[in-house]
Design brief:
Number of strands: 8
Shape: globular
Largest sheet: 4 strands, mixed
Distance between the termini: 35 Å
Strand order of the largest sheet: 1-4-3-2
Strand content: 25-35%
Structural class: alpha/beta
């Protein structure tokens, strides 16, 4: 049996796709891609990914069966220096919940609320 990443896919539920896309693109400095839901039930925009890199792929999802909100599963994005994302969050429509703090030998973390009310984190070694 081959080794696999613990997480194979993630979805961050949104109410306003355009607002959420703008938030993540501004904060992460990336471009999300249009993605077709094979079931036709949801609107999706995927995060950039490659099968050669460590980590899970995922998408923003607008679905009738799920709503965004705090208190569910929390996604941590791997970044170069989470202070960069911390500086962008509020301008992009989010809120800082916990400014950059040390998790000792495991690096640094920022916890925030995205434009849709989801709690997310940013992790870096710096």
């Amino acid at each position: 049996m081959s080794q696999m990443n613990a997480v194979g896919w993630f979805e961050i539920f949104v109410e306003d796709m355009a607002r959420a896309v703008a938030f993540y693109q501004d904060v992460l400095g990336i471009e999300l891609q249009d993605m077709t839901d094979p079931t036709g039930e949801t609107e999706m925009m995927s995060f950039p990914s490659t099968m050669e890199a460590y980590g899970a792929a995922g998408a923003l999802v607008k679905a009738a069966y799920a709503q965004p909100g705090s208190g569910g599963t929390q996604v941590y994005f791997s970044v170069e220096d989470c202070a960069t994302q911390e500086a962008r969050v509020e301008k992009a429509g989010g809120k800082i919940i916990r400014p950059k703090f040390s998790i000792e030998e495991y690096g640094q973390v920022v916890v925030c609320e995205d434009s849709e009310g989801n709690t997310i984190g940013f992790h870096s070694q710096k």
